[in-house]
Design brief:
Layout (H helix, E strand, L loop, with lengths): L24 H16 L2 E3 L4 E3 L1 H5 L5 H19 L4 H18 L4 H8 L2 H14 L2 H44 L1
Length: about 180
């Protein structure tokens, strides 16, 4: 899907639904960046310079907090979809949200992770990168997105392999201890 680079230049054959009339990519980008700021870095711990947002605050509520902020994060992904970001970039954005949700769900450690992992700001930067990039840059960025996803999937497979191995060795040890 083609992307709109300027509000005054409609794409060939483009029809905007009535609810999108008057909405520009600049407006959507500003909304995404503002939402990312509120979720990830709106507040600062005085003297330490550590920034955090509503994601880290709501993350203190087990189960509920991370689910709510992940739902808010999906709005940035919806904006990306509306503006035709490549599916691999959208997958990378979804992976950022998933990592934030999964890791943030771990009690206490997840809250520290929420302060460090700023998935919404990463996603807003991906959106900005795409909306402002030229054609050649799109191809280069798409390769970087594929590489990110490949490394992420590889890392998750390694973690899964380690978890399965530890589980197997633990069960084997228990079986030999009991018999």
């Amino acid at each position: 899907m083609a992307m709109r680079l300027h509000k005054d230049i409609p794409l060939k054959g483009e029809l905007l639904p009535p609810e999108d009339a008057g909405r520009t990519w600049q407006h959507d980008l500003a909304v995404a960046e503002q939402l990312a700021s509120w979720l990830d870095s709106r507040f600062e711990i005085p003297g330490l310079g550590i920034r955090f947002g509503i994601d880290a605050i709501l993350g203190l509520i087990p189960g509920f907090g991370d689910a709510v902020t992940s739902m808010a994060s999906l709005y940035i992904l919806a904006i990306a979809s509306r503006h035709g970001l490549p599916r691999v970039t959208q997958a990378r954005m979804a992976a950022n949200i998933a990592v934030d949700w999964l890791m943030g769900s771990i009690p206490l450690l997840g809250d520290l992770f929420d302060v460090a992992w700023k998935s919404n700001q990463m996603n807003a930067a991906l959106l900005r990168r795409h909306l402002l990039a030229a054609s050649e840059e799109h191809r280069r960025h798409r390769r970087h997105d594929w590489l990110f996803l490949a490394v992420l999937i590889g890392g998750l497979l390694v973690v899964l392999g380690i978890a399965v191995s530890i589980g197997y060795l633990t069960m084997r040890w228990l079986w030999h201890s009991l018999t």
